[in-house]
Structures
1.
Amino acid sequence: MKVLVATEKPFAAPAVAGIKGIIEEAGFEFALLEKYSEKAELLAAVADVDAIIIRSDKIDAEVMDAAKNLKIVVRAGAGYDNVDLEAATARKVVVMNTPGQNANAVAELVLGLLVFTVRNFYNGKSGSELLGKKLGILAFGNVGRNVARIAKGFGMDVYAYDAYCPAEAIEAAGVHAVANQGELFAQCDIVSLHIPATAETKQSINKALVGTMKKGGILINTARKEVINEPELIELMAERTDLKYITDIMPDADAEFKAFEGRYFSTPKKMGAQTAEANTNAGLAAANQIVGFIKEGITKFQVNK
Ligand code: 3PG
């Protein structure tokens, strides 16, 4: 039984060592492919593996066909839009994620980016504070809940909307629930996106929605670039010179956004989950889930059926 860790963006070294330990302890063979630049390298590395641990690495039908023995793919992280679930199901390959394991890391980055933004990217000019500002959290999953927890520590007034989470559950977490995403954008000073990239959400953050934000509104995206309608957001930011867009996922139109000096910031590479702790939490969970599946058939956290 051979398990491959295939990560274009590598895990921290202690996480890799921990994964290797779990895999070898189970009597399986461990293999590592890091920082690869060509898909051909991935196709060659999967040839004889039974299981793969990935991050945002793309696992499509071609990769699965190159992995003749493949039984399971675990996305060490939350979003699994990088795995072709239909192709996996058709080939009887189980796909899992490790929900919640890297949520705190992403949430800490959100608040860090917000402080950076309201202090004018640390350029020395007088900025503003987060205390008392209305923060809207779009989707109240693991990351959204952690953002709420930390934002409350900053004294922010926290609101949330989640199409799949009842208002009572949001209120139970000490957060104001609003009726829909339109209300969230219209009421809040800052909106933080935590929605997955699905057929429903892709391009859904558009001019009509963001355009309802109050003067000086900040949109922060640590979710997926695909949820943004980039041409519309660019059009809006050209008209509304008060709005800011801060993101951890570089937009396709990065060069155009860069024209909005002082109102746009993107990390060079998605780094929300890029901490030793998150890598260890997610990586070890992925390794344990593979061992549990191979040895005992445990399919908890399976995301395809
Ligand atoms: C996730 O979905 O878990 C995050 O976006 C982290 O992605 P990464 O593992 O590519 O950093």
2.
Amino acid sequence: MKELKIITNIQVLDYNELVEEDKILVDKAKAMTEKSYAPYSKFNVGAAVLLSNGKIVGGSNQENAAFPSGTCAERTAVYYAHSKYTDAKFHKLAIAAFQDGKFTPYPISPCGACRQAILEYEKLNGSPIKIYLYGSEKVYVVDGIGKLLPLQFDSF
Ligand code: THU
């Protein structure tokens, strides 16, 4: 029997170790938590995408009384970004979550549906989208959403 081993390298950093460009992106994701509409979960998530044209586009989770109709922050951000700047590539994506009056100490990670949605733009890019998962104690940096979605589904 053969075995496949899948290894994901995650950089673990303090916010202060980020370069200025990355701090700005993470700050935008943090700010976007204030635009979240999450009356049901009370879990406010923000996301921000840095595009090849230098623009940063944000998104937040938007909930609905009919629960499945809501959308995560990451999908709001990537769909909005590609709707607005269709020709731009996605360089980086940051995510932050705010709950009970503070940012989560450790990062939250995108749900499966968001990973698949982000992957679509990574494929379109032809290059990895660097992912920044913010926590007030630690920031995780992953070199591409493909790393968070091993054995991914791709079109035939
Ligand atoms: N949520 C996001 O927006 N992004 C994630 O990565 C995980 C979860 C949202 C969905 C829902 O509005 C709330 O957080 C609680 O699950």
3.
Amino acid sequence: MKRMLSGIKPTGQLTLGNYIGALRNFVKYQDEYEMYVFIANLHCITEYQDPEDLSRNLTDAVALYMACGLDPNKSTIFLQTDVPAHAELGYIMACNTYLGELNRMTQFKDKTANGEKNMTAGLYTYPCLMAADILLYNADYVPVGEDQKQHVELTRDLAQRFNNKYGDTFVVPEPLIAKVGGRVMSLSDPHKKMSKSEETNKGCIYLLDDIKAARKKIMGAVTDSVGIIQLDKENQPGLYNLIEIASSLSERSMEDIAEEFKDQGYGKLKGYVADVVCAELEKIQNRYNEIIVSHQLEAVMKDGAEKASVIANKTLDDVKKKIGLEIKY
Ligand code: TYM
């Protein structure tokens, strides 16, 4: 069985973008692949987080993983810091990464271009830790949204470099990006990715959003003045994004949805998208509430950490041996 690994960094509440671009796909794949899904808590602290908020977001993220359908009997779910091998291999990876490679990472470049102050060394070397996350498990595939593709490509380069220097050690992973929903855009600015770091809350739907508030965000989504419902990503990006969201959640093709609403106006289409999204949110939130009161999270995380540690520690031991970090007695 091929192995898959992915993670989410819950610096805030999980978003509809996280769900459509990543989480939903983990659930789909868990029957066919040996699936490892973790909460990337070390990645969260590359920027300051209020400790109480962070801790609450981590708990919510695990509960939401399960509420969205990740089944701990099929997938190994764990917290990154419960497996210390991540930090250790992250450092080793940083020693095998060139500054030029990190300077080319778009997320870092964008932040620099936006004049962001007080960037930490952790933020800069974050792709090395992400490479370690993946390589520790010798994952064949990494299901992610489009924005993470560059990081998985760097991981491939680092794996190949290490294998060439020290002999075959790592599986070279492949990113797996959904054709529809790989990049969900902001509802208030369809040229930007839907993201939890948005200044206003209008463009981003959170999985735990109040249902009425979520509907309002969709009904207020920025579209265009063309007035025709069709699939024109370049000239009607807002409309295209709404149809893409509905398509990924309903399993209907984008063409089919555009065709149904072609003579009905933007309001009707938005109403349909809101119905689809709100039905999904309601389902997730009902399960989330059940999971929170069921007190099963601790056992799930303990079991996940044990299973993940076995594989991660084996890889790390092999890496240390290959590099020559061990004393031979
Ligand atoms: P993060 O936490 O920013 O996002 C988690 C996952 O959600 C996807 N995603 C989106 N997909 C479509 N449209 C959007 N608007 C959208 N926003 C987010 C992301 O592409 C991602 O798949 N570095 C990672 C976390 C990480 C990781 C890993 C992932 C750490 N180590 C190892 C895979 C393997 C991150 O910050 O994702």
4.
Amino acid sequence: MSFDPNKIRLHIANDLQERVVVPLTREQAHYLGNVMRRKESESVWLFNGRNGEWRCELLAVGRKGGEALPVEQSASQVDTPPLTLFFAPVKRTPMEFLVQKAVELGVTHLQPVLTERTTNRRMKEERLVSIAIEAAEQSERLDVPVLLPTISFPELLHDLPVDHLLFCDEDDGMNAMADVLSCQDEGGSWGIIIGPEGGFSGAERHALQSDERVIGVGLGPRILRAETAAIAALTIFQSTLGDF
Ligand code: SAH
């Protein structure tokens, strides 16, 4: 992947096919025209998570929106292998950081899970989605991870949407995540769960430890902030069973 600093990538919802004009939102037109000073007939690269990435010519960039014409497909659609990060919401800034890094590190689904010690119960989903889209644009992904609805901890285990759940547990004596994964076969779908600033409650830990779908893993001898733990866990997963 050759990095081109002048290449602007934007996610759109519309289908992308050769020479079928697509609309740009007002925000996208403002960004292209006023911030990045792009003019009609210059290029922008668009992707929608289905039709790959297309180099498009700007037809119109105005205050009310814009239009672009897909000219050539610059990358065919590649779907990211499924990987879900379940996280107990933390304070706004670290949570937005966590979402941004999780997108760069290749999650396909993000799901907030309200645990007993979760302090921040008010999330601005729209803001998290726009952070995920911006991170997908920047990291040259061809898809945008899905932000799943916030659920409670009991609901998570009752309807676990993955085959294997890696429980990041800061307790002493946990086996290192890389060692645990190195002796796992790759079958089935995987999830990683990270607790809140105050950690999981005793009851939650017990529920996780007694669930056969759950595998406890350690991330080293230090207590990591939730956002740090998410980055560490995703990096280890991607470099053992994932797409690094
Ligand atoms: N109970 C901790 C705070 C939790 S840290 C304390 O004593 O302060 C937030 C979350 O990050 C934890 O719930 C856990 O999921 C993860 N985490 C932090 N450090 C970890 C480690 N060394 N190994 C595994 N998970 C860790």
